Every structure is written in structure tokens, then in C-alpha cells.
Amino acid sequence: xxxxxxxxxxxxxxxxxxxxxxxxxxxxxxxxxxxxxxxxxxxxxxxxxxxxxxxxxxxxxxxxxxxxxxxxxxxxxxxxxxxxxxxxxxxxxxxxxxxxxxxxxxxxxxxxxxxxxxxxxxxxxxxxxxxxxxxxxxxxxxxxxxxxxxxxxxxxxxxxxxxxxxxxxxxxxxxxxxxxxxxxxxxxxxxxxxxxxxxxxxxxxxxxxxxxxxxxxxxxxxxxxxxxxxxxxxxxxxxxxxxxxxxxxxxxxxxxxxxxxxxxxxxxxxxxxxxxxxxxxxxxxxxxxxxxxxxxxxxxxxxxxxxxxxxxxxxxxxxxxxxxxxxxxxxxxxxxxxxxxxxxxxxxxxxxxxxxxxxxxxxxxxxxxxxxxxxxxxxxxxxxxxxxxxxxxxxxxxxxxxxxxxxxxxxxxxxxxxxxxxxxxxxxxxxxxxxxxxxxxxxxxxxxxxxxxxxxxxxxxxxxxxxxxxxxxxxx
Length: 476
Hints:
The chain is an alpha+beta fold. The chain has 2 domains: 16-101 and 147-315 and 357-464, Outer membrane efflux proteins (OEP) (Up-down Bundle), CATH 1.20.1600.10; 102-144 and 318-351, Single Sheet (Outer membrane efflux proteins (OEP)), CATH 2.20.200. It is 59% helix and 11% strand. The protein contains 11 helices and 6 strands. The chain has helices spanning 2-11, 63-75, 77-100, 149-215, 221-235, 238-255, 264-267, 288-291, 293-314, 358-424, 430-464; strands at 44-45, 103-113, 131-144, 280-281, 319-330, 340-350. A 4-stranded antiparallel β-sheet has the order 2-3-5-6. Strands 1-4 form a two-stranded parallel sheet. Helix 3 (77-100) runs antiparallel to helix 4 (149-215) and helix 4 runs antiparallel to helix 5. The longest helix has 67 residues, at 149-215.
């Protein structure tokens, strides 16, 4: 007992010791200007992080898109996988926490024995008569966390749980962005189908006009063939367009965990391409590291790697465990009858004397992993700012392109009308009409895809800004 008290007196004060470096949140640099490229004051507005709307897709003012987002967040299979991984990380933390607490086991057995009375020796002393024998005990052990190994292990598991929660948010953000992007692209393809059909009507009218002129002997075989080729060329645009629409409907069906073509009856009625507002909130640059789940996950992995250094260093020091057993032994099936009680209590320790360099190698490995995690964190932050800068430029340039294409479509439509009037009047040949229609169709197509680009670049902008989740997932 004196030895036990001596061990406790020496070791318990050391239980607060924590080997290894303590984790400190890395400092993240922010751009000097925000937005970092050009004068975008007419396009973007800065707001505080509290005003940053996590449901950023509501800026597009499309109720069906909002409904698809809710269904995707509730049913998406990738998100469900990320949720189960988060549950696994919670279980890992529970295991690590349990190792820090005392361990208590109950064990026992009961059997009936008979020794041969003709044998050379009868240890039971009962001359071969049956013997009832039983044993029950409670055993306990508790590893004293003198050097902080178990606490560092819990710290690492808790950090990995946080990283798993951030990975879940990253998947949620990806699902939200893909849902919005696929929906916008579908509306763009539907708008393109309208334009194609409008141009088919124009080409068919031109063909009818040319046939009349050919019958009258005014038009030539060449002009008739050109008109027919123009109509067939425009009609050939429909099958790829319908194919792309089917792909996008299937993509949206997959995002909400439904079979292909499930959403066709909802999405087939054509709607306008969602248009973002003139000014959109960005939030403060200092809040980017707090919003982006990949940065938060990289920070958590760095935290876990730092804590693992303490675990490796603790392996160099003695391990002390308190052990205890209490029980009784019985020669009958009646408990506590004619028994003698058993107990034992005392510490045990293990001192690493020679491990063949394994401890040094493990420590070097953990330190190298911590250095790698620190570099990856810096890379993640720098890549985040690269994505933000690119997204800001893309959003601005796509808006500028759309404004110019609006004017181009108006002028090309006017040119086509004039070319047709001049062709009927005999002032120009039919080639001018064909060129005018091709130019108008080209600019109409470019305008539609620029509208898609504006709305899609807004989706990309909010994705790289880390929008898409409302609050951190609870870890307990």
C-alpha cells in the first residue's frame, strides 16, 4: 500500500503534463482590395458576414429552383455518404475518449468437476466425488495519462471529427452548386430550342419565298438549293439540343436521388433563364477562411497532425497503469458459501528500453505529416483566393459580354429584315439573306449562352465564397 501511495503521489501531479506542440490557428492573409480586381462597385456590394445569405440561390428568384435545392439537400446520395462518414468520425472520437477513462470488466465461470479415484493423485481431496467450483471477479484498470498521450489522441480525433463535418459541408455546397448550375443550363437549352424553332420558321419562310421566285423565273436553282440547305442546317440543331436537355434533366434527377427522367414533367414547361440582381452581397474578405469548408477542413487536419506529434512523443516515456481485482471463489453453486474472497490492487508500468528505432521513426513521420498539413493549408488558402479572383472576373466579364450581345442581336435582326426586303426588290442576291440569318442565329445563340454564363458565374462565385450551409454541424 505504501508503494501504491508513493506511485500515486509521484504520477498524479504529472497527469496535467502534455507533450508535443500546442495547436495555434494559422493566420490567413487577405487581399488589400476587395473585390481584388478592378472597380466592381456597380456589380457587387460588401456586407457583413451576418448578412451573408446562406440560401444564395434565392437571389435568382426562381421558386422551382428553390424547391429542387430543398429536395437535393434532403435526398442527395453523396450528401448521405458524407453524413455517414461524419457519424464514423463521431464513433472514432468516442473510442478515443473511452481510452482515457478507467476500464471495468466482470468475469466469472462455473463448472462441475470429477477426478478419478484411481488416479495417482486427487487434487480435490474428495476421493473422486464431483466438485462444484466457481469463480467471480471484477477487474479494473486505468492507464494514467501522465504525458498527455490519451488527451492528445482525443484532441486529434476531435479535430478529425471537425474535418469530417467540414467535408460534409463541402459536399453540401457542391450539391447546391451543381443543382443550380444544371437548372440554369437546362433553362438555357430550352431558350435555345425556342430560338432554333424561330429560325426554322424564318428559314422555311425564306424557302417558300425562293420557291415562288423560282417558279416565276426570278430565282435560280442555286438560290433554291441554298434555301433548302439553310433550313436543313438549322433543323439539325434540334436533336443535339434535345439530347442536352435530357442529360440535364437526368442530372437533376440524380441530384435529388431519383431515377432518370423523373423530373421531366416538372422541368419540361420552359421558363426563363434565372437572372441575378444587379448587385450581389459578397461578405467581408476576412470571413472567407471562416466560410469555406475546405479551408476549415485543412485547418482541422493540421490540428490533428499537430496533436499526433504529442502522441508520438509520449511513447518515449514510461506508461503507468493502475490495476485492481475483487472476487470470490466457491466450491458450491451457492454464492458466498464457504468461500474465500480475493482481491488485488497495484500499479504496473512499462518502460520503453529498446524499440529498434520505431519510436524515433514514428515521431519523424508525425512531424513530417504535420509539415505537410501546414503546407496543404497554405495551398488551400491561396487556391481559395485564386478561385475567388477568377470568379469575380468571370462574373464581371460575362455581364459585359451579355450587354454587347444584346445590341448585336438587335442589329442582326434589323440586318436580316433589310436583306429580305432588298432580296425581294432584287437589290441583292439570296446569299445576303443567308448570311444575315446565320449572323443573327449565331448572336442569338451567343446571347443565350452568355445569359447562362452570367447566372452560372454567380453560382460559381458563391461556391468559392463558401456559401451553401447555414450553421456548423453539431459534433455531439
